[in-house]
Structures are given as structure tokens and as C-alpha cells.
Amino acid sequence: MKPIRLILTASFVFVAITIALSQSPTASPVAKPPGSPSAASPVPPIVSAAAARSDREQKAVGKKFSSGWGEKLHEGGNTAIVQLLLSVFGATFAFERFFNLRRKNYVPKGLTAKARELWNAGKFDELERIDETDPSTLGRAIALVAQNRDSSIADVSAIAGDIISQELELSHQKAYPLGVVATLEPLLGLLGMILGMIQTFETVALAGALGDPAQLAGGISEALVTTGLGLAIAIPFLALFHFFKSRTNMYGSALEREVTALIAEWMLKKGKQEAANAH
After folding, report:
1. Which is nearest to 181 in space by CA: 90, 274, 271, 68?
2. Roughly what angle, to the nearest 10 degrees, separates helices 45-65 and 213-278?
């Protein structure tokens, strides 16, 4: 009897536990705050209309702020147009420098060795026209040295230095508009921002106490378009200006080095030969 009693007791406990686990807990009702409308209570028409109007305004503001860059540039107004035209003007000078500011136009490789061969061979006529066969700043300087080879070394050095300085100055002048664009673009952006802010505050002032804060935020966003556009254009133009300036100075140093070496080699050798012939 005792084993049967244990079996019955265990079966009863097992059934009780199974029933307890199978029952899902009931959610306790959440107490609503006093004065809150019930789910079944109807929404007043005025509240629903205001909610719909607020939803439409939020969608309109979101659409306005999520517009593309084309629309944002259009919001910049006349100032943005002037900035874009100025950038196109500066881009023409940038492309000109990319195509013309090259080593072959200033210090071609192998031209110094060719000039030495012509000088040592006594082909001064070809040396005087070397700027025609190899048009470059170095070629023009070598041609002038050959044409004035009977002058003193000081005069020849001055002539060669003058032509190098003139052509380097011309190269700097051609890159100067890039610096002008880089300087004017942020100023135009600041001007556009100020004009936009003035117009925005006038609109808010006319709206009075019923003005929408979204109008102020949207107007500020439109005013900042010209500032961002000015900085976006000025940064690359300033970098290009210093890049071309540095490259011009590099070619100028190479020119002075090559021409000085040729003058010292030719004119000093000539002076020593004349002194030896005199003795």
C-alpha cells in the first residue's frame, strides 16, 4: 500500500504543476491617469484638425530640409549665381595652368646638354636659334646668352636673369586669379548669409506672435547655403593657387641653376682663353 500511496501522491503533484505552468499570467490592468480620455471616447473635431495640420507642416518642413543640392543652390538666390559664375571664371585659369605650367615649357630635360654640344662644336648660329627648335624659357635664355657671347659676364648674367624673371612673373600673374577667387568666395558667402538673415527676420517680424518657428529655421538654412558654397569653392581654389605658385618657384630655381652653370662654364672659359692669348 505504501508504494501505491507514493505513486498517487507523485501523480497528484505532477498534475498540479502541469496545470499551474499551462496557465498564462493575466495582465494587470494599467491604471489610466485621471482626466485622460478613454479609448472609446470620440476625438473632438478641433483637436483632430489641429493634429492633421501639424502633421502636414512637419512633412512640409521635412521635405524642405531634405531637398537636394540643386534646390539648395536655387535657395541661395542671386548671390549663389554670382559665386558659381566666379568659380567658372577661376576654373578657366586653373585649366590653363594645368596645360601650360609644365617642365617642357620652362626647363626641358636634355636641353642643357644639347646647348653644351653646340657651344663646344662652335655652332653658334644654331645655338642662337635654339629657342625656335626648343621653345621654352631655358631655350630663350640660352639663345640670348649665345647672341651676347661677346659681352662681359656681368652683362650676360643680367640679360639672362631679366628674361627668366619676366617669364616667371608672367606665370605668377596667370595664377593670380585663382587667389582672387579664393578670397572673394567666402566674402560673397558672408554677404549672402547676411542678406538672407535680414530677409528671414523681416518675415518673422511681419508674422508677429503667430509666426512659425519653422520659418526662422528654414530662412537660416537658406542663408547658410551661400556661406557653405563660398567655402566649398574657396578651399580648392586656394590649394590650386599655392600649388601653381610652388611649382613656378621650383621651375624658377631650376632655371637659375642651369643658366648660371652655363654662363659660368662658357664665359669663364672664354675669359681664360682670352687671357692666355693675350700673354
Report:
1. 90
2. 10
Q: What share of the chain is helix, strand, coil (3-state, %, to 5)?
A: 80, 0, 20
Report the C-alpha gap between 96 and 41 in whole angstroms: 75
pLDDT at 23: 47
Mean pLDDT of 229-235: 93
Tens of pLDDT, residue by residue over 248-277, are 999 999 999 999 988 888 887 665 555 555
Best CA proximity match to 97, nearest among 235, 255, 251, 244: 244
Given a contact cutoff of 8 angstroms between Cβ atoms, the answer to whether 259 and 141 are in contact is yes
pLDDT band at 78 (very low <50, low <70, confident <90, very high): confident
| Torsion angle in degrees (nearest 10) through CA of 97, 100, 105, 110 | 100
Separation of alpha carbons 8 and 14, rounded Å: 10
Model pLDDT, residue 203: 73
Residue 175 C-beta-side C-alpha neighbours within 13 Å: 23
Burial of 174 (0-12, 13-18, 19+ CB in 10 A): middle
Please tell me the predicted confidence (pLDDT) of residue 254. Answer: 92
Question: How far from chain centre, in Å, is Cα 143?
Answer: 42
- Cβ atoms of 142 and 115 within 8 Å: the answer is yes
Start-to-end Cα distance in the chain: 151
- CA 174 vs CA 48, 106, 141, 212, 253: distances in Å: 66, 15, 21, 51, 19
